[in-house]
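A protein record pairs a chain with a discrete description of its three-dimensional fold. The following entry can be read in just this way:
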Amino acid sequence: MKLTDILTPGCIRVPLQATAKHEAITELVYLLAEHGKISDRENVLHAVMEREATRSTGIGHGLAVPHCKSASCSGLAAAIGKPATPLDFESKDGLPVDFIVLLVSPHDQTGPHIQALARISRLMLTEHFRNDLAKAQDGAEVLEIIARYEA
């Protein structure tokens, strides 16, 4: 499974309007709803924020991967946001986040969810990938960069 298999250009926002963690998560959840990837944005938002309250999803290298399981989707859904200025996500490495990948999956589909988490985490370990993302000006560029590094 590749990230490009689950991403659509409409679900990538560069830059995010959000200036705080909660706002960024909300903006990405609403983006998924706007593009028909989830059926109940408030249910998903509640589930993501509940998960975020247990432990920050800021995993380091400027990446946050807020995620949840929800009956509001039929398959793995993803949205990506790049804040205009890095956001505090209480990351493990103490650094702010400049790339956010929101993942929402049905309760009974753990495999694709875990694969997507692992894939984006591996990509973010590559300094060239992070540098290229930092230069991306829009969603199409982000998608192209992901596709190039997944090849």
Summary: DSSP finds six helices and six strands in the chain. The first strand starts at residue 12 and ends at 16.
